[in-house]
Amino acid sequence: MTVGIVVVSHSRALADAAVELARQMLPGRPLAVEVAAGTEDGGLGTDAAAVSAAIEAADSGEGTVVLMDLGSAVLSAETALEFLADDVRERTLLTAAPLVEGLVGAVVVAAGGATRQQVAAEAERGLAPKQAQLT
Amino acid sequence: MNPDQLTAWLTRFAELVHEHRDELTALDSAIGDADHGSNMDRGMAAVVAALAEAPPADAAAVLKRTGATLVSKVGGASGPLYGTLFLRMAGSADAGFAASLRAGFEGVLARGKAEPGDKTMVDALGPACDVLDAGGSLAQAAQAAADGRDATVPLVARKGRASYLGERSAGHADPGATSTALLLQAAAETLGGSQEQGGEATS
């Protein structure tokens, strides 16, 4: 079993595209990546109940790492924690990683069997390659 | 507090949000992402529908369902913020309106991590709680919230999408403080003097 990944975004299109980009790194390898993005009617927004459902769906017992875009995505993810069972909440990590770059790093190490702490740490290092290139 | 009173309050708040929807969105288009009016209108319409579909049996259940609906239906940051306000109020529903609102306010502070003067709903909700805690009436609390809203006009936003604008966020009232003033106005119109019963739950 591997750590699950959850992507929380205002935009379903943005989240799906970020997941597509990240999955390019995992040809033929399974990994639970769930998306909670957009409003029910297809608009821009976030839904804490959808985030908690995505966390439950992505969690196979090894826990999840949650990546978010900005603003209400962060508040909705924090609120979602309140709706989870205690054991699921305890193995859920919200990370301040940049969404796109962090997700690419996160899926690679998650698929390799890393712990959720390792996955979150890798995600949070997501900007390092870009920073190194541009200095 | 009894469930019928609270439902009347929330229904009136939904009406006020609907009436002021364009104003709230205009404020938010000046300093944010132009969705506060439509988001709150959608969220509160869903609350009214959820309460009508199966009227909750007690005050805590009214508040809990309101919070759970808002975190799901609003879409923007107001969803988790107003949602947390009502979910925390539900946890203190037996303590009376003033204490319940104070618990909700503390939930908003913890969720949003905003402080007074950051140009947020905190600037309207905090003064209203202070008035109620000091034994003031709901009408006085509504006035304090309106004054708090007006006091956000010259402030520079330090939270939310408006904070990306820096100094350009000054000169407009905060949309969240504006909708919070409507929440207290609705309370003054519908809950009468019920908060004067202090810690005695009336449900």
Q: Would you mind describing this structure in some detail?
A:
The complex is a heterodimer of chains A (135) and B (203). With 135 residues, chain A is α/β, with parallel strands linked by helices. Chain A has seven helices and four strands; from the N terminus they run βαβαβααβααα. A four-stranded parallel sheet of chain A has the order 2-1-3-4, sandwiched between helices. In chain A, helix 1 packs across helix 5 (99-111), helix 2 crosses helix 3 (72-81) and helix 5 packs antiparallel against helix 6. By secondary structure, chain B is an all-alpha fold. Helices cover 66% and strands 0% of the residues of chain B. Mean pLDDT of chain B is 93; it is low at 194-203. Chains A and B meet through helix 2 and helix 3 of A and helix 4 and helix 5 of B.
Report how far the terminal alpha carbons of chain A are from each other: 39 Å
Count of helix runs of chain A = 7
- Beta-strand percentage range of chain B: under 5%
Q: Based on the structure, what is the oligomeric state of the protein chains?
A: heterodimer
Q: Which pair of chains forms the biggest interface, and how many residues does each contribute? A: A-B, 17 and 21 residues
Sum up the overall morphology of chain B in one term.
globular
How do the SSEs of chain A run, as a string of H and E? EHEHEHHEHHH
- Unreliable stretches of chain B (pLDDT < 50, length at least 5) are 194-203
Annotation field: number of helices of chain B? 9
